[in-house]
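Quick one:
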Amino acid sequence: MVTTYRPSAFHRILSSSPFKGQVCNETSLWWFDKTPHITSNAVVSVPNANVTIAKKCSVFPVEFRVRGFVTGSTDTSSWTVYGNGIRNYCGNVLPDGLVKSQKFPANILTPTTKAAGHDVPVTPDEIIERRLISEADYDEVSQKALSLFEYGHVICFFLRS
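Output:
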């Protein structure tokens, strides 16, 4: 994988940012180095600051998003969904009375899948029923996603202190 200096959004190159690729690559590598006790990763070697050689992996057609706060502005953000009155989001029952940027009582997993180029929220039951991944894989990946998120909070809190 070769990282670039060109920030893009919506499949358009927006500009050039010196060292952006290197920073993204090295940030990812830093986290991969800190988390092997939670899960293995595909990194084989790093011959250049902008290059990671990795094992070929099969990709799950589900994105595992962990959220700790009621926030965001996209169609699938927890604040947008909550503000639209949805109280069961991706299988998570949300209480009434939450306010923007409030911490959830516990971190939640809000998986999505792709449809015509955009993210579509799905519940764990839908993932299994649609055979996007097996129940065993769902259980393992969701546990690891939550563990990585929680560990990230611990590390960031420690670095901030």
